[in-house]
Design brief:
About 35% of the residues lie in helices and about 25% in strands. By secondary structure, it is α+β, with helices and mostly antiparallel strands. β4 (about 75-85), α5 and β5 (about 110-115) form a beta-alpha-beta unit. α1 packs across α4 (about 40-50). The model has no long low-confidence stretch (mean pLDDT about 95).
């Protein structure tokens, strides 16, 4: 499988993927998301050093087509970001990264927060087996993430927190 841990020298490429993946938001009337800065290199380095930054590379030169960064939240694996370069869109890259996390994290569940009405966000994740959590189902850690996102202005558009159960790696 073309999924591996991100190398330190690839972190700026992850920023490039993030910028390119943000562009389609412009057509939805969300230019603020398209113009948002990618995660800073020092933050990406923190994920990379912890073994929580993975890339998908389907190219001969090994250049990443997509990436996923995650953290442990309340005993589960929380996807902080999964992004795919438009050149590799609709080829199963995001699904492969998420499925890989489900197998390799050892967590009983995956969670994420996302835009409710963006076609390649909540509806896509629902097709991958995620379900929207009610407010009462949010753990303390997920409530903290939702609050941080609201402070950053992401709640300007409807957002949801989603969860999918996993099978631990054999």
């Amino acid at each position: 499988m073309p999924i591996r841990r991100a190398a330190a020298e690839e972190l700026s490429l992850l920023q490039d993927i993030e910028r390119a993946a943000g562009e389609p938001f412009r057509a939805l009337g969300m230019p603020e998301i398209a113009d948002d800065d990618p995660p800073p290199l020092d933050l990406l380095r923190t994920y990379q050093l912890a073994g929580r930054a993975w890339v998908f590379s389907g190219t001969r030169d090994g250049r990443p087509d997509g990436y996923l960064i995650w953290q442990e939240v309340d005993g589960g694996a929380h996807i902080d970001q999964v992004s795919v370069h438009p050149r590799a869109a609709r080829r199963g890259v995001g699904r492969a990264l998420i499925d890989h996390l489900g197998r390799e994290s050892g967590a009983a569940a995956l969670t994420l927060t996302t835009f409710a009405e963006v076609p390649w966000n909540a509806p896509y994740y629902a097709r991958l087996g995620f379900r929207t959590l009610t407010g009462a189902e949010l753990t303390e850690g997920l409530r903290r993430i939702v609050s941080e996102e609201a402070s950053a202005g992401l709640d300007r558009w409807p957002r949801v927190c989603m969860r999918r159960t996993t099978s631990p790696a054999p």
